[in-house]
Design brief:
nine-stranded mixed beta sheet, Rossmann-like_a/b/a_fold, Electron transfer flavoprotein small subunit, Rossmann fold, ETF_a/b_N, 7 helices
Length: 264
């Protein structure tokens, strides 16, 4: 099987307090903030590696991200993936999920014949759940999201997906695009040997010209979802010092709470 896993570098949760919003572009400012592989995307990598171990074939990683995501992608290579493709250009910045899916689909088509495309069901920073379905539509693949079980028997793929009050079981045939949930597996740890081997695995970077994409269809310009007005909340607080005996303070506090509508 030829399996592609779309992964997204997301800000390291330990540095969330450093993320700001540019008041001019209204986009998140992440420059200089360490990134990690989107956690549920690692479950997608693990699912791909398990299928490869069972059936043979190749696992490739595909990501639309800035150039500094190279080291993040190498973690996926260290887990056992065979190749990585970084789709990177300033023209891709500010993309919503549809513009992102266009870039990913263009990269996937350029890679060549694929049997299965896996992604995480959602990203830790966006959480839209859009990418698996959008990529599937653009690739012309049948698609499902929130996959919790996945297995191959002969030419049939068996899938279980979670829904609000239970689950649904499917049988299908390749090619497919699937978004996996955390419940599907426990991602393996990288080993020292895996890290060493990752340094010599094929790593390709493509931009808009390589993918045949017009700037008008990528990034902020190609995004139907546009940021609206930005209002920064005020965090100041007003304080009032109360003095007197405890029994007097209790009555004053109750009166203040009633005036504020907290107490009837």
């Amino acid at each position: 099987m030829n399996i592609a896993v779309c992964i997204k570098p997301v800000p390291d949760p330990g540095h969330y307090h450093r993320i700001t919003i540019d008041p001019a572009t209204k986009l998140l400012e992440r420059k200089g903030i360490p990134t990690i592989i989107n956690p549920v995307d690692k479950n997608a990598v693990e699912a791909a590696l398990q299928l490869k171990e069972q059936l043979g074939g190749k696992v490739v990683l595909v990501s639309m991200a800035p150039p500094d995501a190279r080291e993040t992608l190498k973690e996926g290579l260290a887990m056992g993936a065979d190749e990585a493709y970084l789709l990177s250009d300033r023209a891709f910045a500010g993309a919503d999920t549809l513009a992102t899916a266009r870039v990913l689909a263009a990269g996937l088509k350029k890679i060549g014949e694929l049997d299965l495309i896996l992604t995480g069901s959602e990203s830790a920073d966006g959480g839209t759940n859009h990418i698996p379905s959008q990529v599937g539509e653009l690739m012309g693949f049948a698609h499902l999201n929130h996959v919790t079980e996945l297995s191959m028997e002969a030419s049939t793929i068996k899938i279980k997906t979670k829904i609000e009050n239970g689950y649904v079981e499917y049988q299908g045939r390749l090619p497919l695009a699937l978004g996996v949930a955390r419940e599907i597996n426990t991602p393996r740890y990288t080993t020292l040997m895996g890290v060493v081997m990752a340094q010599n695995k094929p790593f390709t970077t493509w931009g808009p010209g390589d993918l045949g994409l017009a700037p008008a269809n990528t990034g902020l310009a190609g995004s139907p979802t546009q940021p609206g007005d930005l209002h920064m909340p005020q965090h100041g607080r007003r304080a009032e010092l109360l003095e007197g005996a405890p029994e007097d303070m209790a009555g004053k506090i109750v009166a203040i709470l009633r005036n504020a509508g907290v107490l009837a």
